[in-house]
Specification:
By secondary structure, the chain is mainly α. Helix content is about 65%, strand content about 10%. The chain contains five helices and two strands, in the order E-H-H-H-H-H-E. It is elongated and about 55 Å long. It starts with a strand and ends with a strand. About 5% of the residues have low confidence.
Length: about 170
């Protein structure tokens, strides 16, 4: 199987102590984004009690739950498992299972974001609710985007290579 290198980037060499500090900082940023996302959603939930135009239902919870589950699944995969070149039915198939699991996690993240945008459009924009009720729909989209960004930050921080060389490959 031929590999086509789409982008090969040598990052500047960082001292190991600075690398560890950046890894810790990235973890904190990811946690802050995760917390901010759920905090904004809960704020919208509390605000929904003051409006009578729109009822806050399970469909409003579902995108955030899907994104949270996708974040857990995506960040449970180690990058080294994806690079296994074993091909065929006799090679254990660990890389294929890891790629499938990563795909499911990313699909859950994308589905959560798409679902929140769809709910915003169908439930809040089309019926032309007032701005107070529209805020509830916007908080759902902000939540899923924060969870998506938290997942991306955590993935890159914890799966960065030690030699600071990134190769993006199309198979």
């Amino acid at each position: 199987m031929a590999r086509v290198f789409v982008w090969n980037c040598n990052l500047p060499r960082l001292p190991s102590s600075l690398r560890e500090q950046l890894r810790d900082l990235g973890t904190y940023i990811s946690g802050a984004l995760f917390t901010l996302g759920w905090w904004v959603f809960i704020d919208g939930l509390v605000m929904s009690r003051s409006t009578t135009q729109v009822n806050f239902g399970f469909e409003d919870w579902l995108p955030g739950l899907l994104c949270t589950l996708g974040m857990i699944i995506t960040n449970s995969i180690d990058l080294t498992l994806l690079r296994d070149d074993g091909f065929g039915y006799s090679s254990g198939g660990l890389a294929g299972k890891a790629k499938l699991t990563l795909f499911i996690g990313i699909a859950l993240l994308a589905g959560g974001v798409a679902g929140s945008v769809a709910i915003l459009a169908i439930k809040y924009i089309v019926p032309q609710v007032d701005s107070g009720a529209m805020y509830i729909g916007v908080t759902n989209v902000v939540q899923t985007l924060c969870l998506l960004m938290a997942s991306v930050v955590l993935w890159f921080v914890h799966n960065s290579e030690h030699d600071n060389n990134y190769n993006f490959v199309l198979n």
